[in-house]
Every structure is written in C-alpha cells, then in structure tokens.
Amino acid sequence: MLIVEKESRKMSFESLGLSEATLVAVRRKGFSQPTDIQREVIPRLLSGDADIIGQSQTGTGKTAAFALPIIEAIDENEKSVQAIVLTPTRELALQVADEIKSLRGRKRVYVYAVYGGQPIGPQIRALERGTHVVVGTPGRVLDHIRRGTLDLSGVKFFILDEADRMLDMGFIDDIEAIFRQTPRNKRVLMFSATMPREILRLAQRYMGNYEVVKVSSDELVPEMVEQEYVEVVPARKFTMLKKILSDDFYGIVFCATKRETRELNEKLRRQGYSVEALNGDMSQSARERTFWRFKTKRTRILVATDVAARGLDVQDISHIVNYSLPMTAEDYVHRIGRTGRMGKRGKAVTFIMPGEYRRLRYIASVAGVEIKKSELSEEIPREYRERYEREEKQREYRKNGRRNDRYHRGYSRRY
C-alpha cells in the first residue's frame, strides 16, 4: 500500500497524459485546471496498474477523475460492460452517468444508469442493446445479475463511489456479491469522503497492490464556505429564515423530518417564494423532476431532508441553511459541501435553539471548522434560555437511558 498525500500545485489537463479528443471534451465542459484528486488519480489510472482509494469530498471533481481515464480505455467495438460504478443512491447514479456522458466527447461510449424505484423493463432492453459503462445502486445491479440481464465478466474497472456511505447503508453484502461476478484481472477504485477502518478492510480483502490518494482533511470542508450559526427560539425560525432568503438566494434548506419539509415548503410557497420540497416519501420520478427543476434554476429553494445531503451535484449553490441542527459532524460536512464548490464562494447558516450550542460546538470540533455567531442571532430572554437548556438536558438523559436499556437487553440475551 502506498499513501499519497496531495500537494497543492498547479497543473494543466494537457500534462496529465489525456488524448487530444478527451482534452477537447474537457475544454467544452469549461474545465481549466484539474482539481487535486484529478491531478493525482488520472495519471495513475492512465499509466499504472495499481488499484486506487481516493479520499475526496463530493464536489472536488472525483467523477471526472475516474471517468476520463475509463473513457480513454473503453473499446468502442466491444459491446460488453467494461466498467461498473456503484453508488449509494439513485440520484447519485443518475448524476454520475450524466457526468460520464458529458465527458465522452465524440467517442461512442454508451453509459446507462440502473436503480430501483423504476420499471426494470426499459433497463433490461438498454442492457441488451449494449452498454459500456453501467452506473447503479447495489440492489438493482445485483437484481440484474441474478436475472441474467447484466454480465460483468468483461469488466475492466470496478468503482465504488462514496464507499463510506454505502457501508453505512449496509450494502457490504451486495457489494461483495457483485464483486464476485467480475473477473480477477481488473482495476478496483474506491472513492470516499472519510477513511474508516471498514474501507481499509474492504481494500485488503478485494484489492491487490493499491495506492491511497488522500486529500488533506482541511479540504474535506470547502475553504470557500463562510459558516455561521443563528441562535433563535422555534417560534422565530421562519421569520429568521425569510431574512436569509434574499433575491440572489439559490440553495438548500435542510430539515430534520419529512413532515417539516412539507410544512416549511407550504409556508414559503404561500409567501410567494420559488420553492419545492424533496424527501423520501416522494416517488422516484417526482424526485427526479423536482431535482431537475432545481438544477436548472426553475426553482430557487429546495427544502430537503438528508436524502439530498449526498450526491446532489449542482453548481452555483449560494447558500445552505441547516433549519435543524444535523445529528452528526459527518452530516454537517456533507450538507454544507453542497456550496462553496469549484472555487466559488458559498455560505452555510445553521439554526440552533438555546441549549444546542454545546452540540454545535462538538460538531464544529469534530469537523475541524469554525462556525461564527451570526449578526442575525437574537437576544434570548433568560427564562427562555433556561427552559430550553433544561429540555435539551432531559432529551440527552432520555436518549442515554434508552441506549443503556438496549445495551443491557442485548447483554442479557448474549449471556
């Protein structure tokens, strides 16, 4: 295993070893200089034979990092599947497939996304016609394999995108089952925002000689994001939100629950805002339409649960608002990672109630970020602050009590 720490230095795409045809496609996309992950991964995929683990946050250009060398390696005359890309969500599968298509230029590389929540018939017919690159969620990919409609025996590249998220979602068994259907002689690539031990164990099990390309941890949170928190009582949150929703606002408002997204969406809509909700209760087709309208700026505000925190690749997002404080530092990082991308500035505003400051401080410490108090924060009357702090302590006590009860029940069952 070779660990490569990224060094910040300027390079051009021309110096990475890409063909002129691919460089034309890159220029057409408007890319000027490669990002750190692209600069490190592309030459290694073009010239080496080692497997690669890339540690990189969403929005740093990792799709192009693996897509450009794969496009170069695809044999157009072979109709077999030559690359399989696994993603944790349907939305990310569609976006990765679209990104690969946009980078293929004039080369006849056929890319198709397969995922659940859609009729399987059209997917079967598309696979039968011949596809070079399949992008999909583990469950649907495995479904096609078992039906005999997806043959991975000719795969040259096996890519896990957002591997940490897939492990969190319990896809490890599906991933291993899919992996067993691929030939031994292939390149394995894993991309992950974080590097938990499970990722390295997976690499040791399924990768041969592999290299770890690490983007420095301070770059996991975009440098161009201005981070603030607003302390506010629940009754004032909506009024405070409207102060942030300026005319140039183009962003995502994150809520804790699906119900909260629906209620907030209706309140904003009644006030005349260009807004839509995105949550897990919606059908896949409805989610795709909503996301398309937001991506094309027909909708300026997206009110969403954490279903949108990963994999929504949208350029030019100006603001992220955490209407509810996220549960973990990882959730916070992935939420605010939607803005401040590709060298553009962004702003992340987090609402906290009195009593939640300690949790916010913990999140900031784990994420390694500085979250400043916003000028919009209001003075909280002492009696309100004391009441909310008592309620927060009671919630923590009840949560810890339930955790201890579960532990003791499990202990008694085992012994």
Could you explain how this protein is built, in words?
It is a single chain. With about 425 residues, the chain is an alpha/beta fold. The chain has 2 domains: about 220 residues, 3-Layer(aba) Sandwich (Rossmann fold); about 150 residues, 3-Layer(aba) Sandwich (Rossmann fold). The C terminus is likely disordered. The chain is elongated and about 70 Å long. It is built from 15 helices and 15 strands.
Structure characteristics:
415 residues, seven-stranded parallel β-sheet, Rossmann fold, alpha/beta, single chain, disordered C terminus, eight-stranded parallel β-sheet
Mind sketching the topology for me?
Elements: E1 2-5, H1 20-29, H2 36-47, E2 51-55, H3 62-73, E3 83-86, H4 90-103, E4 111-114, H5 120-129, E5 133-136, H6 138-147, E6 157-161, H7 163-168, H8 172-179, E7 187-192, H9 197-206, E8 210-214, E9 225-231, H10 237-244, E10 251-254, H11 258-270, E11 275-278, H12 284-295, E12 301-304, E13 319-322, H13 329-336, E14 346-352, H14 357-367, E15 372-373, H15 382-414
Parallel strand pairs: 1-8, 2-7, 2-8, 3-5, 3-6, 4-5, 6-7, 9-14, 9-15, 10-12, 10-13, 11-12, 13-14
Domain DEAD-box RNA helicase Q: 11-39
Keywords: ATP-binding, Helicase, Hydrolase, Nucleotide-binding
Biased composition (Basic and acidic residues): 383-408
